Amino acid sequence: MGLMQSVAQKISDKHKKSAVVDVKSGDTVRVHQKIVEGGKERVQVFEGLVIRVGRTKSLTSTFTVRRIASGIGVEKTYLIHSPNVLKVEITKRSKVRRNYLTYMRERTGKGARLSNIDFDREGVNAVQDEAAEAEAERIEHEHSEQHDEIAAEAKAQKAEAEAEKAAEQPQTEAEKLEAQPVERAEAKNPAEPQNKQ
Questions:
Q1: What is the pTM of this model?
Q2: Model confidence over 157-171: pLDDT tens digits?
Q3: How many Å apart are CA 88 and CA 82, to the nearest integer?
Q4: How far are the Cα atoms of 150, 175, 180 from residue 185, in angstroms, in the given order?
Q5: Domains of the chain, with CATH numbers?
Q6: CB neighbour class for 46 (10 Å; exposed up to 12, middle 13-18, buried from 19)
Q7: Which of 28, 85, 119, 138 has the fewest C-beta atoms lying within 10 Å of its C-beta?
Q8: In DSSP terms, which residues pair with 35 in a beta bridge?
Q9: CA angle at residue 138 from 134 to 143, to 5 degrees?
């Protein structure tokens, strides 16, 4: 039994991140999550209150984040060791006396406020997971390249449209003057009577 447990422990340790932020219930966090949509990757940031932390020492350690979006409560549960969770940043720490803050679901407005406590924000967030940081930089770089390509295409289309518009209009003043007498002559011709008897 001990041997089997040690093998499972070794496997789980291999998949754990080298360093993670010590998230606690009552913390306000910003979670940077990798989202894949139709072959494209982007980083989505979800900010809210941590209402539950589970299995802190395990590979399957989770934390649940709650926020109010357009008057509706939204909760997301993250695996802290997941490769899709690129970064967790603690912005605020509050004084709470329990792990599972279910009572926050019934509270809104001023009633949902928690009393803040001082903490070393830089020290807590100074956790470097090089693999996750490299992944975040790669996604950011790809996103900026795609943005540059889209901007270049839009600029080229705009230039083409302007060139077509300029080609349709008379280029020189002489051409404009030539076009004007024809219009006047057409205007001078009397209109033919509609009803001929």
A1: 0.61
A2: 777 777 777 666 655
A3: 11
A4: 49, 16, 9
A5: 2-145 (2.30.30.790)
A6: middle
A7: 138
A8: 42
A9: 150
